[in-house]
Amino acid sequence: MTSLPFVAGALRRSLLAVATALTAASAFAAPPTLPPFPVAALRPVLENGTVAVDARGLWAVPGYGDLYALSADRAALYQYAGGLCWLATADSDLLLAKASGYYARSRQPRDFVLASSPRGTQLHAIGLQRLPAACADGIDRSRPLYTFDAAALTLKRLYPFNRERHLDWDARIARLRPTAARARSDAELWPVMAELLRGVDDLHTSLSNDLLKPTAEIQGQRGVHFTRLRERFQREAKPGEMFMDWLETVWIAQERRQAEAQLLPGTQGSDIGGRVSWGRLPGNVGYLALTAMAADAGDDDGHRAAMGRALDRALAELGDTRALVLDIAHNLGGLDVVSAELAARFADRERLAYTKRPYADARVQPQPVRIAPAGAARYRKPVYLLTSEFTCSAGETFAMMMRAFPQVTQVGQPTQGIFSDGLAKLLPNGWVLSLSNEVYRDPAGESFEARGLPPDRALAVYPARESAGSYGRALRRAAQWAAAR
Fold it and tell me: Does domain 245-483 fall into CATH 3.30.70.100?
């Protein structure tokens, strides 16, 4: 097989002892030289139903371990790690719309990026002349060992938070690979993969047995209460039920009643199936809850527009309040572009919220995310942002955006600590590996991965020793602070 190092000028010795290498641009090992493209430079990949001429070609994305093959009328996605390469089974139209909907190209510095939307994450790519031999048809990728190696080498190369989460991938691979080599079926490989991911405790780093309708999953999390709930779920789960679905539809739905009980009669409203809800608390304090950063369906722009309209409706009804409790204590995430759309309603001026960059591509400069005032409704009065260990992913990026504004005080508990996008890898046997691969930093250059955003004022939303009604009491205290402003 052909090695795919995508590292300047050298062969990488993979665990499979592959013989040859695909050489990449010598700039890869140099200091960061590739700045992000301005939003206005991003153009649609599809023009009149065909791929734009300047976007066609073979594009390897070192920071994400992906290789895009874009021709006039179709797209293919290959994924690579170490000496392995395999075709990801994905619909061509879906791939173009979701993963590579926009592109930009420059000659100085020589660069090419793909992005799902103009404001989305920019994937900096290297152009290739031909498809590497390791990606060719005819290679046996059916053995469980190939799937193990594909996942293990992906984690080894792309996962950034080994120090924070006390991980040694070399040691894990050396210990587990002999067992994987003896596996004769996916069923025998599954417990080996569970050992590979044991203790990672990163909700974005997981393994599921299917892309669209998973019935089994390996996943961990941070936090005593979160872990206690997973143990409860494992006792009560129905066949095929997924933990995060249960968490949202069963447990969070029950917890939300504690907030609803505190709202003044006749003031409650909701939209997007309850993902945006609002009302009034005693003392002329507004209450706004966001339980997800996504609408029910649609593309990125559709989610942004629907959630933006819902928030405008809520803020219009709460505009005369003296302060606001903004409750994201149960926000399990969604889309960062939705987080930015909603945060813009609270911005006083354009401010830097954070930067992000792929861990495995040293060529790439951090991509800044700035929030400027926007939206039909605005709110500039004091905001108390309630967070907990159940504030996850895009809920956390929203919190980081909100912390940039002077009228916002974060109260509650630290967030979950999973800021990176979840990078999906469609493994050769049809399983789906998800992993964190990006580093987010606040304007001061600090990363909060694996520990979460700490509050300005602490509240025991979910204490280590379980206490019935703790969320409701924390919300009541936050409302008292808001009323005293």
Answer: no
For CATH 3.90.226.10, the residue range(s) in the chain are 245-483
Q: For position 96, what pLDDT does the model report?
A: 62
3-state secondary structure the chain: CEECCCCCCCCCCCCCCCCEECCCCHHHHCCCCECCCCHHHCEECEECCEECHHHCEEEEECCCCEEEEECCCCEEEEEEECCEEEEECCCHHHHHHHCCCEEEEEECCEEEEEECCCCCCCEEEEEECCCCHHHCCCCCCCCHHHHHHHHHHHHHHHCCCCCCCCCCHHHHHHHHHHHHHHCCCHHHHHHHHHHHCCCCCCCCCEEECCCCCCCCEEECCCCHHHHHHHHHHHHHCCCCCCHHHHHHHHHHHHHHHHHHCCCCCCCCEEEHHHCEEEEEECCCEEEEEECCECCCCCCHHHHHHHHHHHHHHHHHHHCCCCEEEEECCCCCCECHHHHHHHHHHHCCCCEEEEEEEECCCCCECCEEEEECCCCCCCCCCCEEEEECCCCCCHHHHHHHHHHCCCCEEEEECCCCCCCCCEEEEECCCCCEEEEECEEEECCCCCCCCCCCCCCCEECCCCCCCCCCCHHHHHHHHHHHHHHCC
pLDDT (tens digit, 9 = 90+) per residue, 120-168?
999 999 999 999 999 999 999 999 999 999 999 999 999 999 999 999 9
